[in-house]
## 1
Amino acid sequence: MKFVGPFVNSVMPDAETRREYAPFASLLIIVFCLFSVVFCKMEIRRMGYSVLKLTREERKMRDLDRQQMIQLAKITRPERLQQVAQARLTLKKAEVGQIIQMTGRGVAFKQ
Amino acid sequence: MRSRIVVLLAFLAVLWSVLIGRAAYLQLIPDARLQGLQKRQFDTVVTLNARRGDVLDRNGHELAVSMTTYSVFADPKIIEDIGKVRRILWRSLNMNPKVIDSLLRTKKKRFVWVQRHVERNVKELIEHDMKEAKLRGIGFVEESKRVYPNEKLLAQTLGFVGENEGGLEGLELKYNQELQAGKKKISLKKDARGRPLLIGGQMFEQAPDGADIQLTIDRELQFVLEQELAATVQKHEADSAVGIILDAQTSEILAMGSSPTFDPNRASDFAPDRKRNRTVTDSFEPGSTMKTFIIAGALQRKVLEPNTIFDCNGGQMKIGKRTIHEATAKEKFHDLTATQILAYSSNVGAAKIAFKLGEDRVADILHDFGFGERSGVDLPGEVRGIVQARPWSDILLANVGFGHGVATTPLQVANAYAAIANGGVLKKPYIVKSIRDAETGEIVDTKPAAIRQVMSPEAAAKMRLMLANVTTGDGTGVAARVPGYPVGGKTGTAQKVNPNGRGYIKGGYIASFAGFLPVNDPRFVIYIAVDHPRKDYYGASVAAPVFARVAKFAVRRAGLAPVLITADDVTKSADLARNDVDPVDDSVPQVTPSKAAKFLASIAPKSLSPRILGVTKREAPAKHELSLDDATPAGVAAGVELAAVRAPTLDAAAAVPNLEGLTLREVLSRVNGTGVEVRVHGEGIVSKTVPAPGASFASSKELNVYLTH
């Protein structure tokens, strides 16, 4: 406010001129305030749309994350791993006597 | 002229006043009709769908999860170019074009489902194509879809959900309340394009997801169990097979399943009987696996001891008009100890024990071990089984003694074996380890709960040793052995009840094996039952090998070290046997030397080479002084009577025997008086000797013994 006074004095040095333009200035201030209110409301509305969009994006990311988690679970299920091991890696199930269990003393048990 | 201007101005002023007045009236004065219109235009209700809770195994692997999908619908009335829309849908949905065409041409309907539960990327592709082609008439509804990523694994236990994600079977049904997500509806204003407006700082909140449930199930164990069951059903051309693995100490369910099974992702494609969780919904006569509990109850009530003799009448026993036989005609047992009755699965022996107990005590024993009542497991559809109301006829009492005339579920049998394995406490089996609230993160754990003490720890320990003999020597459960891990258990070969009439199905049997390992510190209880195997039907040859294969995997997975029998273990077993009272019966064991030697050789460490000097004949049994010097093998605890056992002695003129595994005291006791000089190196038990076993002593008659821990 300390700048408004000197500014008005510089533009309208006469007291009479100031009196003449005062109503116009008041109207201007009121209109400006009204526009500001409208602008703020529109900003709120716009931010709301942004939040909505980001919420949907976040939801989409969560869904994608979940989808990939499910995909990973499907890929690593025991049945599939066994199929891959046997079909692609040509591994076979261990037969009796092929698994050697060692103990702390080095004694081995065939299973 | 002036007056005309005034009149015109006055008219315009009145007009404007009316307009302003009307505007002020509409803006300021409330009107119900206008408010209704405003509500319809500007208000909207948004439903926030939350996710159904996940079901995980004990290691956090997903067993049942939900994902967001989109169901495609069409509004045929507003579709302008059916051909273009059909092409778009056909490209994305992989549907038959004729089917799509028939759906889009139903002009009378405003809503037809095109396809349910498509993924987000498919939905976006269709939206994009429709937008590019400037077409209308296709919409999407967001829905949740339940996915079982492991397909058939644990299917009967998990169950499945319906279209609206409500549980219909299994755990999905039992825990539907906890798993179900909350649906939240919030009222919002919307703009001209229908987008919700966030007014007054109102934020979208997530509706609370359903709780996540963690099971006690081990996915890998479950897979191996199911594989073995499926292979057994195929190999023996059986109707079905069930299996269950419990934690021996806590009665947690580590694996449970039956074959054949189904895929819960396509539940409607399978017959209802495949969806039953047979481990709790099916009860059947367990057969010889029941003998364990009759003998355990008798042991607890001090009606018998492990070496109490029973005359098995040459393999048959007449009761009224009926005759009880052994499982095979060639079995003509005479005098058997209680331990041998278990090991050889003598029906006559078991019937005699049942008679000795009487129907009241037998009924009490069945109740103690949880038969005839629900275990309280957190699974739907559990049945009680059948224990007939008293009074029982003599033939029924005899039948109950060897597992007929009573119906049990696989879970009841497994849990009862767990009571023996854990020291005599019957515990409540459970499958849900913990439930985690998705909103608060709070975790509620399930703790093991004891139902009652059914046996003293000492009696349970004796029972475990007796059961260990079933899988050794001539026992029926030899095929259930797991090298390095002593197994205790019992085979069962039960006649199958005729579901369409009285009596049993001719040639129909249920082959089973129930057991635990390792005997010295049980970790796993495993029960396998195969329903109506066509190729071979004995529990010993059908179910016991399945037990062994599953048990081998279980112990390896748990990282259990193999058990080595040391001299201490032998002494403990010998002490146990020594404390047994003299046999109640006066008759003396008819254990032949060859049978006893074979039995001992199968369980004794190689370092111990007991010799049977003789068996008493029809006279009072001699008292046996058992000590470390006797090097008595563990088999003594099983009740096999020996007249005297002596370990090989050192003789300076003979070859060096195998002393590996003996303590220094044992070595010195043998050296005493033989002229052999022993030089001791290190501490512990004998790991090496110089000269080596089999070599002759040097002229100095010196024996270097190397000891290690």
Note: Residues 15-75 of chain A form the longest helix (61 residues).
## 2
Amino acid sequence: MRTLVIFFKRQSYIFLFVLLGALSFYLVVSNNDFQRSIFYSSMVEINGGFFSTTKSIRNFFLLRSTNEALAAENAFLREQLQTSHFKAIHHLDTFRHDTVYRQMFSYIPASVISNSTDNRENFVLLDAGANSGVEEGMAVITSDGIVGIVKRVSPHFSTVVSVLTEGNKISAKIVGYDVIGSIMWDGLRYDCALMVEVPSHVPAHIGDKVETSGYSLAFPAKIPIGSVSEILTDNASDFHTLRILFSQNYKKINKVYIVKNIYSKEIKDIQK
Amino acid sequence: MIWKNVLRFILLVFVQSAILSQIGLPLNLHVFLYIYFMLLLPYQIKDWLVLLLGFASGMMVDILMGTLGIFAFSMTVASFTRVIFFRVAKANEAGQQKFPSLKDMKFRNFFLYVSLVSFVHSIAFFMLDAFSFSHFGHTLFLIIGSTIFTSVAILFCNIIFVSKE
């Protein structure tokens, strides 16, 4: 302790030097504008450098959580991309609610199991039955044309009376004219039928498209049926008889859609 | 002895602030003759008193020149250099006289002593004056030039006045 005191006493001039130097330096900085401005700007520089250094050190330790946050955001943004989406609804049996347009028809996809075209009454057997919501009287269509009307339904299967059946009449019209006629099969060829009851004032031409009229419980409007191939007009009659070439090749039907009229029960009730 | 130092103090501070720092030398060089007072303080004087007296003389010049702190700081550093010099060079101190002079010390030692102290003083003064390291070349020129002028002036003063005593 004594040696320490002696040491400090011996070296006291150093402390005095530091004291006097600091005092005079303080006087310089506080009384000379030039030195003061440089001093304070340097202090700000040092201060800013210190803070930016400590901040970058701090940020280094925050890198991990920052990375995680960025990765989460990346994943979120990637989910927004179109490529991340697939079409979730593959079947067409969709029911869409809308306040303006009420959906009237829904569609049940089905495959053809057996099919006949050469008989006078032809039937199509489908792999969709009552379990899929198929009921009697429903229309069956393909993307190219009409197929027929469901006649009998079992839990897993259903039979369809084909268009190729004598005596069946399907309401139809020539595209462009709001005049109804009927499609009926004459039992001769699987690829054509007759369109009867078309008023004679309608100028029919070969190649005119024929589609469903929509005046039917079963078939929606504007399902293609075929095109006019021959005009068999009897001048004595008031009606055209047109030969129609089916747009659908009935030997080749595979995938069909069973058309469900959502309001069929209501309509039938009111028609009683 | 004391009165001689007091007289030297007053005279040198006056000469420094009234003449030497006013007229100025070409190229902005300075002659810091006032440190001659501190250089010739007696050997036996305490270190802290050397520092205080050095600080006081610098402060006096500062007050008269209106450069508060610059001369005081330079003089404090110079005084500290003198203290260190005589602590290191104790062997050479053994002179007959009571204060450092050309007569008492060998020329080589006295020249070293004067030039070292004035060099440190110049460094402190001009660095504080420039207060930055930009244009350091010019600052270095001022330091070395002023050291030479100051050392020569002090040696002349010592030859003229002390030798006569």
Note: Residues 38 and 53 of chain B are 7 Å apart (CA to CA).
